[in-house]
Amino acid sequence: MKASFKEMRQKRQVRDGTVESLTSDLTEEKSKRLCALLGNVELSLLYKASVHGYQAPAFHQRCDRQGPTLLVAYNRSGYIFGGYTSVDYAQSGQYITDEDIFVFSFQGKIPICIKINSGNYARVDDAGVPNFGQQLYFCYNNQPVVYNSGGNAFSVNTTTMYGNDTQLSECEVYKVEQSSQVSTEGKPWRNVLWTAERKDELMETIRNHKPVMASVSRVRILMIGPVGAGKSSFFNSINSIFMGRITSKAISGSAGTSLTTQFRTYPVNDGREGKPLPFVLCDTMGLEEQTGAGLDIEDISSILQGHVPDRYKFNPTTPFQADEQKSSRPASLQEKIHCVVYVIDATKISLMSDKLQEKLASIRRKVNSRGIAQIVLMTKVDEACPLVEENLQSVYVSSYIKSKVQEVSSGLGVPVSCVLPVKNYSQELELELNCDVLLLTALQQMLNFADDYLDDAGQMEDNIYI
Length: 466
Known about the structure:
The chain is an alpha+beta fold and 466 residues long. The chain is built from 14 helices and 20 strands. Helix 10 links the parallel strand 18 and strand 19 (373-379). The protein is elongated. Residues 1-19, 253-258 and 462-466 have low confidence and may be disordered.
């Protein structure tokens, strides 16, 4: 939260030759909580219904073409709730798609977020009052009222969200901007050599890696994460580094549902004519919060045990069923998963729903029960922090990225040392040294962790035969 929040609360604006004083009803603590959901941002009060009026024209006069905005409503029962949209208002008459849109309600000190359900428009951008999913309308009929049309864009419980008290005592809209005040650490909180020599050293170490178990020729690394977090992009990025050019072998991109529908095992060659490298990246369908959508948790066990074949097409409503002949024998250590990597979008850590966190926790328990090594890959660090966007080498001096690493560590229950920030290749046309160093460092750590698991698995096998 920016240091001048108190100034914002007493902001004086000049409009049409008159001076008006706008005082926010949002407390500093709650403002900080909301900013934590949105990243390293600042809030500026644009519109206050009790001052400007609850009419749609008054809202549009002050909020149109202002970029991302946060609406905060207050009712007579003391509830504080609202919504965020990353697409600005423009009265275009269009149906808006916005993957980042959400509605929220404070439950005590904590704002609980609800993301839009897949397949729904975020809102209609008309001349009317602000709406979310054409379901929740604020200042409805130009009155101090919130109205729920009963649509299904958001899975909201109006009793929980605003106590079924539809009468508003206030409605405010804030402009959301990336903070220009980015704090840095006095010294890097992790040491990285950002040199071509270090990149070459990492590539050579990975090329020459030999799993500690002679029966395993290649380490199998399983990528798990929410839709759009960057699992497939990580493979494409690693493949690009060893190919010496940007590649796009795995399907990746931006969509509301998983672009990966099959279980894929991706070997990586050392150049076009080179030999296979000693690891395989296994990609899965993205996790989704809805029941019956995305990767089924029961499929995880089958994948970990090595029973799911390459190109198996996932069915979110029916778990994988191994044929009796294969399931009657345990898979070899070579076929099993040796390291699990959770891929998390740094820009959406605070927006992760309770259901999605529960799914990840359930998967973590399954992986823990098998003693498999685990790492968290925190992607899109450049989008999360302006300092890092300007210079990727700032990733380990950014206080904001450090706080996100700690947040992921706490939320998933993994040590801070197991959370690795990276930037995948997404829009670049050429390889970039700093990006390569981060990606290769993460891959090297995955191989090290896999060796720890294989070493332990080997000792268990030895004990069986003693």
